[in-house]
Specification:
The complex is a heterodimer.
Chain A (H helix, E strand, L loop, with lengths): L1 H34 L5 H30 L4 H4 L3 H27 L7 H28 L6 H6 L12 H26 L1
Chain B lengths: L2 H24 L13 E10 L3 E9 L9 E5 L2 E4 L16 E7 L6 H4 L18 H6 L1 H6 L24 H9 L4 E7 L10 E5 L3 E3 L6 E3 L1 E2 L4 E2 L1 E3 L1 H4 L4 E2 H5 L16 E3 L10 E4 L1 E3 L10 E7 L2 E9 L15 E9 L9 E2 L3 E5 L5 E5 L13 E6 L6 H4 L7 H5 L4 H4 L2 H12 L1 H33 L1
Classes of the chains: A mainly alpha, B alpha+beta.
């Protein structure tokens, strides 16, 4: 178990490092996209490289962190612990948002940062992924017996020691929004193109 | 209708059906299910001893101190009994308050780290998976020898597996008892014993056993004749029966007659012209005898606070008691029943060390006089929590992340605070529902994030 904990810790540290870098680079890119890139043309290229590198390594690392985390306890224990369930939720959300950013960057290429709309959207994904990553790390501290002060801040919004779940209406709304958003995007763009 | 639209409608149909099915599953009734509004409370304790006796003093808040318990009343021309133990709050609010504790000298494994949880096992009385009475009655030992209909507290050493059915042989149980592998259980009840100055004395080994001797109460219900065995003697108390209205509306106070003792009673007279609402207590209180009567107690409720004193000889010499000695430490775990609840609907503490004149979580102060100098002894505040349906078998199973640590001797307190344990216990009871909601939230959250990202990718692909 100690070995599994050590491996998980290493995975988490690497994930955090990579994705914090990616977040910072995304902020820089969006800032430059909004307020001008002329003064630092090389910074744009470097920041984009950092984003690609950070999310290309960091996103699969989230998955590896989750897998290594699961090896610490028997599977049944994860279904009976509120804190650990919240950690799984936060890490799954982080994984989803960072995967989204990864595909967005792959699909759009460097030109992603050329237009305000897509750039801001990329920033939203990065910040959402970053916030959930912070939640995950903070809950992890509690599980390890070393809670951070930040945990108290989070508990101001969500009680992390109780299994977090949304009411049925909330779940349904999220589901429907998630399912319909791509269709809306396609129809909206088709109309715009035509 | 476009292909996209019909597909979307299909997806929506699947989602709506799943939500409806899951919502219906939520509404299914659970057996023995009740979670109190308050999950934590505080109990204040003092302990002292002299050369002869040990003394405990307790105080805890109780909005309504309940002194009522089990009555027989005349209704519709016949005698009916009130309901006994019930899940959660007693439906007629006729259930006594209690304070109790388990005491050990280090003989019962894991009691010093997990407290009373070591006595709680799957299929016990009033758990949702309670063993059926018919099955318990068929069990050769629990049903056959002990003549019981339900599974109650026992220590793990008395079973050869995690199954309550696997009781060790009588010889092995005797050997355990002689080796002191049992827990002493002291229980003050506000009705059954409280009014006559006694607490109950029991012990937990293969079952929650009564100490040898006679209890401080007996059953006043003649099941064969379906009537009380005794009634009030008007020559002694001035009336034949209480009024049901006074009982059910809790109009009687501690100074009134709300209980019955042999001194107040005479044999029941069925020829008396009983009136609708005539009521007699179902428990006939009497001075206990033998080891069962070892613990003397006084309790009073005033201004929202119960104060209870208990005292017993340091060493009763009885084999069903734990002897206490000067300069030694013992493990103790407290419980309080309040708000008209019985059975498992109590608040419990994690185990504490009580030191007889030595440093411990709760120090019993040594004194020379006959009365404990309570004013000079400080209170120790103990945090109690609702334990829900958490069993020892679950705690040491793979479902509990701390099972290995617990079995290696780590205390529950290493990972948990009493404040949180009440919440965890309630969540444990709701686990199936919580997990169902959690799965849905996890899935819908990921679908939302995925959908949002996909929409962004599609949009970006066309725009840039």
């Amino acid at each position: 178990m100690e070995r599994a904990r050590a491996i998980h810790t290493i995975m988490v540290e690497m994930t955090t490092g990579m994705l914090v870098l990616a977040t910072l680079a995304t902020v820089i890119l969006v800032w430059m996209s909004l307020f001008g890139r002329e003064r630092y043309p090389r910074l744009m290229d470097s920041a984009d490289a950092v984003v690609v590198f950070g999310i290309a390594i960091g996103t699969p690392m989230i998955l590896l962190s989750i897998v290594s985390g699961f090896r610490q306890w028997p599977l049944e224990a994860f279904l009976h612990g509120a804190i650990v369930q919240n950690k799984i939720f936060a890490s799954a959300m982080a994984l989803s948002f960072w995967t989204g950013l990864l595909f967005l960057r792959l699909a759009a290429g460097k030109r992603l940062w050329d237009q305000r709309g897509p750039a801001i959207f990329a920033l939203i994904l990065a910040l959402a992924g970053f916030v959930f990553l912070v939640f995950t790390a903070s809950i992890g501290g509690t599980l390890a017996g070393k809670p951070s002060g930040f945990e108290e801040v989070i508990r101001g919004f969500v009680e992390t020691r109780q299994t977090f779940s949304l009411p049925w209406a909330g779940n349904l709304l999220l589901l429907l929004t998630g399912v319909t958003l791509p269709f809306i995007a396609v129809f909206w763009l088709r109309r715009k193109v035509s | 209708m476009s292909q996209h639209s019909s597909r979307s409608i299909k997806i929506l149909g699947i989602i709506a059906t799943t939500v409806a099915v899951t919502a219906f599953a939520d509404a299914q009734e659970r057996k023995n299910f009740f979670i109190p509004n308050e999950l934590n409370m505080e109990l204040k304790v003092k302990a002292a001893y002299n050369n002869e006796r040990v003394f405990f003093r307790f105080e805890w808040p109780a909005e309504q101190g309940s002194i009522y318990h089990d009555y027989i009343h005349f209704q519709g021309g016949k005698w009916v009994t009130t309901q006994g133990s019930a899940p959660g709050i007693h439906p007629q609010r006729l259930y006594e308050d209690r304070v109790s504790f388990l005491l050990d000298d280090g003989s019962v494994r894991y009691f010093d780290t997990a407290g009373g949880f070591v006595t709680v096992h799957e299929q016990m009385r009033f758990l949702s998976n309670q063993a059926p009475a018919e099955e318990v009655q068929k069990h050769p030992y629990i049903g056959g020898k002990l003549k019981q209909r339900d599974v109650r507290k026992y220590v793990p050493e008395t079973r050869s597996s995690a199954d309550w059915r696997d009781v060790r042989s009588t010889e092995e149980l005797d050997a355990l008892r002689k080796a002191g592998v049992f827990l002493d259980l002291w229980m003050w009840r506000s009705h059954r014993g409280g009014p006559i100055g006694y607490a109950d004395d029991q012990w937990v080994l293969q079952y929650r056993n009564d100490d040898a001797g006679k209890a401080a109460f007996s059953d006043n219900w003649d099941a064969e004749k379906r009537q009380p065995r005794v009634m009030y003697d008007p020559d002694r108390v001035g009336f034949e029966a209480l009024r049901w209205d006074d009982v059910i509306k809790h109009k009687l106070g501690a100074k009134d007659i709300y209980y019955i003792t042999p001194e107040m009673a005479k044999p029941f007279d069925p020829s008396y012209k009983w009136k609708e609402g005539d009521t007699v207590p179902r428990r006939l209180l009497r001075v206990p005898e033998g080891s069962r009567g070892d613990i003397k107690a006084q309790g009073a409720w005033q201004d929202g606070i119960w104060r209870v004193d208990m005292t017993r000889l340091l060493d009763t010499g009885n084999p069903d008691d734990k002897a206490l000695r000067d300069r030694r430490r013992y493990t103790i775990a407290f419980a309080v029943h309040k708000d008209y609840t019985g059975s498992r609907w109590h608040y419990v503490s994690l185990p504490l060390m009580v030191g007889m004149g030595v440093e411990a979580d709760l120090v019993a102060h040594n004194f020379k006089e006959s009365e404990a100098p309570w004013e000079s002894i400080p209170w120790t505040t103990v945090n109690l929590f609702y334990p829900g349906q958490v069993t020892w078998d679950w705690l040491v199973s793979s479902s509990h992340a701390g099972a290995a640590d617990l079995l290696q001797g780590q205390s529950c307190a290493t990972c948990h605070t009493p404040e949180l344990l009440g919440s965890y216990a309630a969540q444990h009871e709701l686990r199936d529902d919580l997990n169902r909601h959690w799965y849905w939230t996890l899935a819908s959250g990921m679908i939302f994030a995925g959908g949002l990202s996909l929409a962004g990718v599609l949009a970006a692909k066309r725009r840039v």
